[in-house]
Design goal:
This protein is an all-alpha fold and 107 residues long. It has helices at 19-30, 34-37, 44-60, 65-72, 76-92, 94-104. The longest helix has 17 residues, at 44-60.
Length: 107
């Protein structure tokens, strides 16, 4: 089940917002290229941005795990790990919560 956080609106009202629009916003916000965001890099700043994007796709836009994996070039286990990690850190790390909100609030 999606986790509700104050200030983060539910974007599932229309997937018409779309994956491409989300990726465009993420590329601009995180200062990465689309290729890097969906690529294989394990650099912390890239992984963090990628995990937030996958979390938004699943938790806020209601994309399925397999669909997110296909779009982000990741397997379903990676997508599930990203969702779990973001949900956990949102609950315990104020700085991380601000990091996530700073992106989500641009949507």
């Amino acid at each position: 089940n999606p986790v509700a956080y104050p200030g983060i609106t539910d974007l599932s009202k229309g997937k018409d917002y779309g994956y491409d629009s989300l990726i465009d916003k993420a590329v601009d916000h995180f200062k990465l290229t689309r290729e890097v965001l969906t690529g294989r890099s394990r650099k912390e700043n890239i992984v963090d941005a990628r995990q937030v994007v996958m979390w938004v796709l699943m938790e806020k836009m209601r994309f399925g795990c397999s669909e997110v994996g296909r779009l982000m070039n990741k397997n379903h286990a990676t997508v599930l790990h990203a969702r779990k990690k973001v949900n956990t850190l949102l609950g315990v790390d104020k700085g991380y919560k601000e990091y996530v909100y700073s992106f989500v609030n641009t949507l």
